[in-house]
Amino acid sequence: xxxxxxxxxxxxxxxxxxxxxxxxxxxxxxxxxxxxxxxxxxxxxxxxxxxxxxxxxxxxxxxxxxxxxxxxxxxxxxxxxxxxxxxxxxxxxxxxxxxxxxxxxxx
Length: 107
Hints:
- This protein is mainly α.
- It has helices at 30-43, 49-60, 67-88; strands spanning 97-98, 103-104.
């Protein structure tokens, strides 16, 4: 969304939003968690694997104020909140993952 100058009179509406620095509690299901993972890996326009890794390094180094690293940081933050809540609620399970094939190993 852009704020382009216009000759039109402003059209003001009421908008509900969160106050700055507020914390909220939400519950999400596993399907949404998986969609967030897919969004992180497939939804952002990385050029290639090295670009993904470079943006991940920016997030890790605290240099995520703009570009893909900014959006990656947002998604990672939400995923980490979900994982922390799952860990506290003893909801995490261990799975084997094949790095070569890029998929979970069926038990």
